[in-house]
Amino acid sequence: MSAVEAKLAELGLTLPSVVPPLAAYQPAVRSGVYVYTAGQLPMVEGKLPVIGKVGGEVTAEEAKELAATCALNALAAVKSVVGDLDRIARVVKVVGFVASAPDFTGQPGVINGASELLGAVLGDKGIHARSAVGVAVLPLDAPVEVEIQVELVEGS
Length: 156
Prior knowledge:
Mean pLDDT: 96
Order of helices and strands: HEEHEHEE
Strand content: 15-25%
Largest sheet: 5 strands, mixed
Distance between the termini: 18 Å
Radius of gyration: 15 Å
Structural class: alpha+beta
Strand order of the largest sheet: 1-2-5-3-4
């Protein structure tokens, strides 16, 4: 077991299977020392646990937890490309999309769910640049979607 997966276990988390693509794309692609993930929905065992708009049918607290699930799914996508999460040198960028009710403005707090999970699992390697964007709708009426970019250890 990798050190990253051991940390996940310590936190009571398990790396899920890679979420299959919903359309014509790959869950993650490597280019040189970087891995870029596709947008990851908060799928759990092939289903969205909650649907709807944040600030409407979904609370900000629920959405923050869903963002953490998205980040976990993104780590699974990275592992599918590199084989070992210990090869991550750092998370470079996180982009989070929040399907928002018209008056909802708490997108950064929602995407903190992803950022905090990456920090808890990867420590200083999980500190990253980030965007948190409110959108009208996401695929499958998901409340949140997250993509990450990671840099790998040189030579790995």
